[in-house]
Write a structure and sequence with these properties.
alpha/beta; Rossmann fold; 5-stranded parallel β-sheet; 6 helices; 5 strands; globular; binds flavin mononucleotide
Length: 185
C-alpha cells in the first residue's frame, strides 16, 4: 500500500511540509509505504500548452515531472499540500497540476483510491485553494467525495503549526484514515 505526498510549499520544514510529515508518519506506522516529493527540490517546469500532448510519446518538457508522475499515477493514496498564495495554490503546485494534462490527454487516470488535501493560510483563501485542489482530483480520478480528506488551518512563520496540537493531530488522523480506507476497499 503506497501513499505518495506532493508538497507545494517552497519552504522545506514549513507548515505544509510539517503537516504532511505528520500524516505520512502515522500512515507509515500503520504499515503504508510512503514517499514525499517537495516540488521545489526538483526541476518542475510549467506546461508549454501544446494541448496535442497525445501526439507525443513523452512530454516535451525535459525535467523531473515525468518521473514523478510515473510513480504518482500508481500510488494508491495521494496527498497534495499547498500553502495559500494569493488565494490559490503555489506556483509549484499549479505547475504540477498543469503537467498532469499530459496524462489526461493520453487517457490515463490516477490509480489513487483516496486523497488527502493539506492547505495552510496566513489569514484567508483556504476555501478557494481547497476547491482548486479538489477540482483537480475530480478531473484526474473517479474518486467519490468521501474519499477526499481535508486538513486545513492557519499559520504564518515556518513551524507555527508545531504550536497547534489539534492541527497536528488532524493531520495524523488523516494519515490513519487513509490507511484504513485503503485496507477496507
Ligand atoms: C507569495 C505569498 C502569497 C501569500 N498569499 C496568501 C494569501 O492569499 N492568503 C493567506 O492567508 N496567506 C497567504 N500567504 C501566507 C502563507 O500562506 C503562510 O505563510 C503559510 O503558512 C505558508 O505555508 P508554508 O509554511 O507551508 O510555506 C502568502 C505567502 C506568500 C509567500
Amino acid at each position: 500500500m503506497k501513499i505518495m505526498a506532493i508538497v507545494g510549499s517552497p519552504r522545506p520544514k514549513g507548515n505544509t511540509d510539517l503537516l504532511i510529515d505528520q500524516a505520512l508518519e502515522e500512515a507509515a506506522s500503520r504499515g503504508a509505504e510512503t514517499e514525499k516529493i517537495i516540488l521545489s527540490q526538483y526541476q518542475v517546469n510549467p506546461c508549454l500548452g501544446h494541448q496535442n500532448c497525445s501526439s507525443f510519446e513523452k512530454c516535451q518538457q525535459d525535467d523531473d515531472i515525468p518521473a514523478i508522475l510515473d510513480r504518482f499515477r500508481g500510488a494508491e493514496g495521494i496527498i497534495l499540500g499547498s500553502p495559500v498564495y494569493y488565494y490559490g495554490v503555489t506556483a509549484q503546485m499549479k505547475a504540477f497540476i498543469d503537467r498532469n494534462y499530459f496524462l489526461a490527454r493520453h487517457g490515463i487516470r490516477l490509480s489513487a483510491r483516496c486523497t488527502g488535501l493539506v492547505v495552510v493560510a496566513g489569514g484567508g483563501g483556504i476555501d478557494q485553494t481547497v476547491r482548486a485542489l479538489r477540482r483537480y482530483i475530480k478531473l484526474a480520478t473517479e474518486m467519490p467525495d468521501e474519499k477526499i480528506l481535508i486538513v486545513s488551518g492557519y499559520a504564518s512563520q515556518p513551524g507555527d503549526v508545531n504550536s497547534n496540537p489539534s492541527l497536528l493531530e488532524e493531520a495524523r488522523k488523516m494519515g490513519a484514515q487513509m490507511v484504513e480506507m485503503l485496507r477496507t476497499n
